Amino acid sequence: MSRLLVGTDGPETSERLLGYLSDALGADDEVCIVTSEPGGDETTSDEMATGEEALDILQEGLGEAVVERHQFVRGNEPIEDLLAAADDFDADEYVIGIRKRTPVGKMVFGSTAQNLLLEADRAVRCVPLIE
After folding, report:
1. pLDDT in tens, 1-30
2. Which of its termini does the chain have fewer beta carbons within 10 Å around, N or C?
3. Model confidence over 43-98: pLDDT tens digits?
4. CATH architecture assignment, domain 3-128
5. DSSP annotation string for 74-121
């Protein structure tokens, strides 16, 4: 049995992760799904609704495997929420989507995936978000 922490940033990411997880999950695996919003006045109702939709896609698609779901709106960077959630859930590994970005894009916007790969203390499964 594995405990997976799945991080998503929107419905499209959730669809791609669901495609991967549907084949990869074992019968006894447990999943915690997480999304992280900016928090405070910086989070709009549309962003909240998009986050909920992203979580719904994974929860409905994974059924019994999902044991927890969280939409964090604490003002943290997504990497902070992912690391904390993995500790709280006692996850064995992370599952995240990755996109190809230019060096300038990484510098300006950061890269949650890159930061997670550098800071994680457990395995990270990376699912390509483009075909």
Report:
1. 999 999 999 999 999 999 999 999 999 999
2. C
3. 899 999 999 999 999 999 999 999 999 999 998 999 999 999 999 999 999 999 98
4. 3-Layer(aba) Sandwich (3.40)
5. SS--HHHHHHHHHHHHT-SEEEEEE----HHHHHHH--HHHHHHHH-S
Task: Give the DSSP H/E element, type plus range, for residue 124.
Answer: strand 123-128
Q: What is the pLDDT of residue 129?
A: 87
Q: Are 71 and 55 in contact (CB under 8 A)?
A: yes
Residue 117 CA, chain-centre distance (Å), reads 13
Give CA–CA dist 110/103, Å, rounded. 10
Residue 30: its H or E element: strand 30-36
Each domain of the chain, given as residue ranges in start order, spans 3-128
